[in-house]
Amino acid sequence: MTVPADLDRRFRDAAVQAQLLDAGYDIVESPIGPLLVAATDRGLLRVSFDGGGDPDAALEHIARVAGPRVLRAPRAVDTARAELDEYFTGRRRAFDLAVDLRGQPGFAVSVLAELAMVPYGHTQTYGELATRVGNPKAARAVGMVMNRNPLPIVLPCHRIVGASGSLVGYGGGLERKEQLLRLEGAML
Amino acid sequence: MASARVPPFELFYESHRDEVLAFLRGRAGRERADDLFQETFLRALRAYGRLEHGEHLRAWVLTIATRVAIDTHRRAGDPTDELPELPDTDGRPAYEELAFLTDSLPPTERAAVVLRYGYDLDYEQIAAALDSSPDAARQATSSGVRRLRRRIA
């Protein structure tokens, strides 16, 4: 016997309503592929490009950071879904979501805080971002933080490029980085 | 004992939801089973953060389901106090070595003894399954064991 979809959905909604989750997640469709989006009571915890595949590894990771009560619960990411939809349809240029950076090392937190201020449609180099966190020689370390960014798109690591203006790399693949920059009108 | 990590709740839920619903439909009928299903997994969710290992989660959630079915039965005014058999694992009772001893115990003590010594659950887990406190679970277990000792002696 399979649990009927409406019963399943009612339980997931009730779990959010009763505030029993350490983290709720859902798969959010987007022009750059399905995204796994997770949120806690503190804010957005994870945006990941493994939305299309087997989420087990992503769930284990979320559970290690937030706690084991991790459930797919569409209502838990309603706000994030709405803001992402607006972003992808060109109606939003900045995110208003609270973020939950638990589990991130201190250096990463300060880099991600600076990253959040790089404006829509603009790019900066790894070196420039390193300078802004007070360590001009840390371009490589900044690159590592970009590569492990827990909240791509929302924390816009796609706006960080190489010194020559080349895209260099992206956790979700260069094609996605280019798509995001085109969406923002940064690549002409 | 090598203890398995507690899996993310989603994986636990996906593994057991179908069986829990089938079990509740068998016990309480199709109509009531839906409500009991939600209550069972909400109760599991409340206790889930305190689990210390991921062993025997099937027995654990089926015990919660049993308990939920009994509690709502009681609220409905039916005085029945039966704590029924845990469902079989692979067609045989998972605790059959204990069954001949525990069958005569009062329902709560019997469930506590079986979960503790048949399934090796800790008192937090037993408490969650029986909807009581760890202390009460420990007490039910030890008074069950004392009762058994008196009977064997």
Ordered list of secondary-structure elements with their pairings:
The complex is a heterodimer of chains A (188) and B (153).
Chain A: H1 5-17, E1 23-28, E2 35-39, E3 44-48, H2 56-66, E4 70-72, H3 78-88, H4 106-115, E5 124-125, H5 126-132, H6 139-147, E6 160-161, H7 174-183
Parallel strand pairs in A: 1-4, 5-6
Antiparallel strand pairs in A: 1-2, 2-3
Helix pairs in contact in A: 5-6
Chain B: H1 9-48, H2 57-75, H3 96-102, H4 107-118, H5 123-130, H6 134-152
Helix pairs in contact in B: 1-2, 1-5, 2-5, 3-4, 4-6, 5-6
Describe it:
The complex is a heterodimer of chains A (188) and B (153). By secondary structure, chain A is of the alpha/beta class. Chain A has 2 domains: 84 residues, Double Stranded RNA Binding Domain (2-Layer Sandwich), CATH 3.30.160; 78 residues, Orthogonal Bundle (Arc Repressor Mutant, subunit A). Chain A contains 7 helices and 6 strands, in the order αβββαβααβααβα. In chain A, the strands form 2 sheets. Chain A has a 4-stranded mixed β-sheet. In chain A, α5 crosses α6. The longest helix of chain A has 13 residues. Chain B contains 6 helices and no strands. Chain B is globular, with a radius of gyration of 15 Å. The termini of chain B are far apart. About 5% of the residues of chain B have low confidence. Chain B has a single domain, classed as Butyryl-CoA Dehydrogenase, subunit A, domain 3, CATH 1.20.140. In chain B, 69% of the residues lie in helices and 0% in strands. In chain B, α1 crosses α2 and α1 crosses α5. The interface between A and B is medium-sized, with 24 and 22 residues.
Keywords:
heterodimer; A: 188 residues; alpha/beta; Double Stranded RNA Binding Domain; Arc Repressor Mutant, subunit A; 2 domains; 4-stranded mixed beta sheet; two-stranded parallel sheet; 7 helices; 6 strands; B: 153 residues; mainly alpha; Butyryl-CoA Dehydrogenase, subunit A, domain 3; 6 helices
